[in-house]
Specification:
Elements (H helix, E strand, L loop, with lengths): L2 E3 L6 E3 L2 E3 L12 H13 L4 E5 L6 H9 L9 E6 L1 E3 L5 E4 L3 H15 L4 E6 L8 H14 L2 E7 L3 H10 L2 E7 L11 H8 L2 E5 L33 H18 L3 H10 L5 E5 L4 H8 L8 H10 L12 H4 L9
Parallel strand pairs: 3-4, 3-12, 4-5, 5-8, 8-9, 9-10, 10-11, 11-12
Antiparallel strand pairs: 1-2, 6-7
Helix pairs in contact: 1-2, 3-4, 4-5, 5-6, 7-8, 7-10
Keywords: Oxidoreductase
Protein name: Aldo/keto reductase
Organism: Sinorhizobium medicae
């Protein structure tokens, strides 16, 4: 496993990270023992970056990771945690809270659930429109000074907010969706990050399984986010799966899987981009790790982008009710 700089933060992370959300929430039932085994397998394979959110399963995901890390050396992993999303007992989303006192409160619970005394990268999950981003970043900066947080990250914010946040404290990375069928960040967001020395930790590199090569119509069940995701809806999913089949022909010619070539494409966009893989099982993790051995030359990149042209995806990446909370979408 290669270790690469996470922006100009001074820390290095594995060139691929593990996103743990699906082990607790939003993608239907998961197996606890298999989830923990997958985290162990990731660490044993050299993955250091584990990504979670305090609202994934209303704390379940942090407790799961905490259990998986028992007996492991703390410096084997770098924990990236998002905070601020509010939910009720039924799981309904209630908005975001990034007030300074809320930041301190969220972190205290996170440290307890994970069973650690510091977080490597702490970030607001979304912009709180009622709180200046300077206030939120300033509050996390105080936690850095106190030793509870090592680095500050951002999530799903646009160019102006990135600049404003970076003016308060150095930002290690921006976590944002990026894949062959979600390339909107290339026009404005990536250039600003590169100007400021901020890395991109890319989630959704397989578009929630849609371009994994394994997805079939009807796979989304009740309780699965994909059941209401625009790209998985009838009329859209057929067009999107046609793109997958075009990608499959390229993958087959190289002797790799669709998932591997899709992940490799994201990684090939720059050393400052770290793909986050949302594997919930060891077999899917092993497949994703195989992308590290996929070498894409200029001809491969051209063929991939011809098979899946920019803006070719049918449907938005989130339902409209969620997009309105995403500052990253306001660049357009």
């Amino acid at each position: 496993m290669r270790m690469i700089p996470l922006g100009n933060s001074g820390q290095k992370v594995s060139s691929i990270g593990l996103g743990c959300m699906g082990m607790s929430d939003l993608y239907g039932p998961s197996d606890r023992a298999e989830s923990i085994a997958t985290i162990h397998a990731a660490i044993d394979a050299g993955i250091t970056l584990l990504d979670t959110g305090d609202f994934y399963g209303m704390g379940h995901n942090e407790m799961l990771i905490g259990e998986a890390l028992k007996g492991r050396l703390r410096d084997q992993v770098q924990l990236s945690v998002k905070f601020g999303a509010l939910r009720d007992a039924s799981g309904t989303w209630l908005g975001y809270d990034a007030r300074p006192k809320a930041v301190r409160n969220f972190l205290a619970y996170t440290l307890q659930r994970l069973g650690v005394d510091y977080i490597d990268v702490y970030r607001p999950a979304r912009l709180d429109s009622d709180v200046p981003i300077e206030d939120t970043i300033g509050a996390i900066a105080d936690l850095v000074k106190a030793g509870y947080v090592r680095h500050i990250g951002l999530s799903e914010v646009g160019p102006q907010k990135i600049r404003r946040a970076a003016a308060v404290h150095p930002i290690s990375d921006l976590q944002i969706e990026y894949s062959l069928i979600s390339r909107g960040i290339e026009d404005e967001i990536v250039p600003v990050c590169r100007e400021l020395g901020i890395a991109v930790t890319a989630y959704g590199v397989l578009s929630r399984g849609l371009i994994s090569g394994h997805w079939q119509r009807g796979d989304a069940k009740s309780g699965d986010f994909r059941a209401m995701s625009p790209r998985f809806q009838e009329g859209n999913v057929e067009r999107n799966l046609a793109l997958v089949e075009a990608l499959r022909r390229i993958a087959d010619a190289k002797g790799v899987t669709v998932a591997q070539i899709a992940i490799a494409w994201v990684a090939a966009q720059g050393e400052d981009i770290v793909p986050l893989i949302g594997a919930r099982r060891r077999d899917r993790l092993a497949e994703a790790l195989g992308s590290q051995a996929v070498d894409l030359d200029a001809g491969d990149i051209s063929a991939i982008e011809s098979a899946v042209p920019k803006n070719a995806a049918a449907g938005a990446r989130y339902p409209e009710a969620q997009l309105v909370h995403m500052d990253s979408e306001r660049q357009k």
